[in-house]
Records
---
Amino acid sequence: MTDVAPLAERLRPATLEEILGQDELLGPEGPLNPAARAQPQSLILWGPPGTGKTTLGILLARSWDARLVSLSAVQAGVREVRAAAESAAARLPERTVLFLDEIHRFSRSQQDVLLPWVEKGILALIGATTENPAFALNGALLSRTRVVILRPLADAALERLVDRALGDPLFRPPDRAPLDLDPEARAILLRACDHDARRLLNYLEVAAHVARSLERPTVGRDLLGRVLGEAFRKADKSGDWYYDLLSAMHKSLRGSAPDATLYWVVRLFDAGVDPRIVARRLLRAASEDVGLADPAALGLTLHAWETYERLGEPEGLLALAQAAVYLAATEKSNSVYLAHLRAEREVRNDTSREVPLHLRNAPTTLARQLGHGAGYRYPHDEPEGYAPGVSYMPEGLGERRYYHPGVRGFEKRLKERLEHLRDLDRRATTRMPGDDD
């Protein structure tokens, strides 16, 4: 490979053992372990960009000692596929592998052209796709191939790829001083590439050329930020930075600081975070932090999310911002959240208690004969719509108080009502038989 080739091409693995980040696929227990890949076979390689689908297809064909015909469904059509198949048939018993990149771009009828050649074994098809094969490919073609999944490259694999790149003559020329990559720039680069090896190498190559032109000995944060441009600010969609932004938004909202909440919401949008992630966090806050202090908050947040889904961007972002400001400004209570934790702890640590007879369903004569529903008092027929003195807890558990209402917002009214009802309970349980009502 010449120096004029892109860095990504120069560093393309030459053997299956050099492929990074696909150990689960190629390892001893993987679907393409050495025994499983010993003979030519038809495969669909499914994975996101920059995971090595093309490299894997080429190296598999090479390991099978087969002739490789490489086409792209973006440019090729039925004529090119038929030509490749007829050429393969003429060369038998030599095996031919047809590598078809972007295979999902073929229409259903174009995919059908592949079927007889694959079925007869004249061609071993390796199709590469970023789309779900279950939706993008014919069932008939899927039944004649094996789908293998390539995972996004983990940080450890990307780190090793960076190390390989730093050994390239671009960074270690024989006649010039070496070029280094500082740790902070390295971390930013790993985030910016979004697990795409090709993107990582392209960013790194451009940054190296810029550093050389400026006679810099190191690719640093500022220089890399200049290369990445908008991607620099939107780089970290996972990891601490991402979670820190979400945490800052949530804590500002919980702290009733609408301006700070809005600032962090906009920071999340500007960083390219999926607005649905913001919507989910807002919905959680509406339930966990606002709760019954403002029962309207949950519905308002759901409506904001629905508005975003209907309007899209940028108009729909305003609805989410509106919900965020409202949640930050309104009354707060975590009473239901704490009550749920108490009840959850009780249930997990307790036995499975029987449902009391008066609370059981009684849809049949037998159920009623067994006492199901016996003695149940219908609250709507009682004064104040409440049956004083009735227990709804399992026998032996006693009365529990998981929910302790707060004193803010609508929950203040709930607190007053529950205190009144419990007073009715106390009077009902202390009333002696024969007492006047």
Note: Residues 254 and 289 are 6 Å apart (CA to CA).
---
Amino acid sequence: MFRAFYRADASAFPMSFQATVSYVWMQQAFLALFMAWMMENEIFSAISDGNIAYELCRPINIYRMWFARSLANRFAKAFLRCLPILIVALFLPAPYNMMLPVSPGAFSLFLLTLLLGTGVTVSFCMLIYMVSFFTISPMGIRIVAVSGVEFLSGAVIPLPFFPDGIRHFLELLPFASMQNVPLRIYSGDLAGTSMWQAVLLQIFWLIALTLLGEFLNMLAMKRVTVQGG
């Protein structure tokens, strides 16, 4: 689809076709790190069916345990998935192959923002888990949240393709700090002052969402109800 659009008028797009191809390949390779729909059904089940009681018997912080568990789960899946995709993408014929990083510095910053973006994604998913304590069924909030993240994070259409006014607004939201930043840094589409502003926003949203999640966890632990006994 992108190839057809670029053939029609390549000058109308904010990213080069090679950068867009690399964005898509990296997105698929690290899908497990950024997809909000990859939440753990076991956690939702523990909240809704009362098995949360077993977790509360342990002398640990529920939020931090689930946060670490979610990170480990995502990184394990991403490691198994990324290697074959990256190998294939590097050896495909041009222009469908994945480009190498624009510079060693950009690659180092890509790795840093990859970690930050994953942290923001997990922090947002943790909010969904925490809100589930206050609902009868988590399905409604889960469906709405996942749909919003898919569109607003650049998972469907990269954010540079949005009209300028909408794009500037979306880039301030936490969703833009997920996959949008590392993937655009890798392809060289995000650089200079805008790049450093995006990194600072990633750090801000990671701290803000984590603190909000800890606060909701504190409220949930004060009123948690175990159904059936």
Note: The chain has one domain: 15-223.
